[in-house]
Description:
Layout: H1 2-15, H2 18-42, H3 52-65, H4 72-90, H5 93-116, H6 133-153, H7 161-172, H8 176-188, H9 197-222, E1 224-230, H10 234-244, E2 250-255, E3 262-270, H11 272-284, E4 290-296
Helix pairs in contact: 2-5, 2-6, 3-4, 4-5, 4-7, 6-9, 7-8, 8-9
Amino acid sequence: MSKIKDAADTAWAAVRTGKFWKELIIMTVGMAIAALAVNYFLVPSKLIVGSISGLSIVISGIFDIFGMTVKVSTVIVIINAILLILAYLLIDREFGIKTVYTALILGPLMDLWEKVLPASELITDGTSVMGDIWLDLCCFVLLLSASQAILFHINASTGGLDILAKIVNKYLHFDIGASISVAGAIICCTAFAINPFRMVVVGLIGTWINGIVVDYFTASINKRKRVCIISSSHEILRKYIIEELDRGCSLYHVTGGYSGKENIEIQSLLTQDEFSRLMDFMKKNDIHGFITAGNVSEIYGLWNKHKRGPIG
C-alpha cells in the first residue's frame, strides 16, 4: 500500500507543476496535427505510409473485403494499446505514460476533425483531398514529421510506429529517422493486401522521406551552438555566461601553435538566442578573441534549457 501511495503522491506532485500542463498542451497540439494529417491526407487516398495508421487502414480494408465495417480510428486504438505496454516495459515510465495519452487521443481527434470538417467535403476528384497522390503524400509527411519531432523533443511520441522506432533507437542506437524508415518499410509491405503495386511503392517512398524529414525537424528543434572562445578576457566571458546566460562552461589551457603563448579557451553550449547575446556582449564591451561555433543536435547529461550544466 505504501508503494501505491508514494506513486500517487509523485503523480499528484507532477500534475501540480507548470511543466506538466505545458507538456500536456504540446502533446495535445502535436496529436491534433497528426490526426489532421491522417484524416485528410492518409485515409481518403488510401496511402499506406509506414505507420500504425497505415497498418490500420490495411486491416480496416481487409475487414471491408469480408463485408465487415471497422473504423480506422478503432483499429488504431487497439494496436496502440498493445504497443503501449511495450513502451512502458522497454523504454521508460515517462515515455510510456506520455505515449498512453497521445496514442489514446489520436482516434478521438480524428473523429473530431471529421465532425468539424468532413474529408468528403474537401475531396474534388473522388479519390483524395489534394487531387494528386504525390501532393497528398507530401502534405501528410510534412505534417506528421513535424508532429513526431515536437513530441520526441519532450520524450513522448505519436504512438504506434514511433514506439517501435524508439525501441530500436534506444537499444540499437540508430538515428530516430532511420528507425522510423526501417519499421515503416515493413508495415508498407502489408499494403499489398489492399493496394496495387504502384501505391505500395509510393508508400515506401513516403516512409523513406518521413524518416529524413523527422531527422531534419528533430535536429532543428534540438540544435544548439557549441561555442569555443580563446581570449585574454576569458574571466569576463566566464562570468557573463554563468551569471547572465545561466549556462555552464568549461575552461581549457591551450598553447598557440604559432606564437607558443599560453592562453585559456572557454567552451559552452548555448541556444541560438544565447549565442547572439554573447556576441553582442563581446561587441559592446570591445572584447576580442578567436571564436568558433558549430551546431550540435544531440545533447546528453547535465545540460538542459532550464539549469546550468558543465560540458566538461
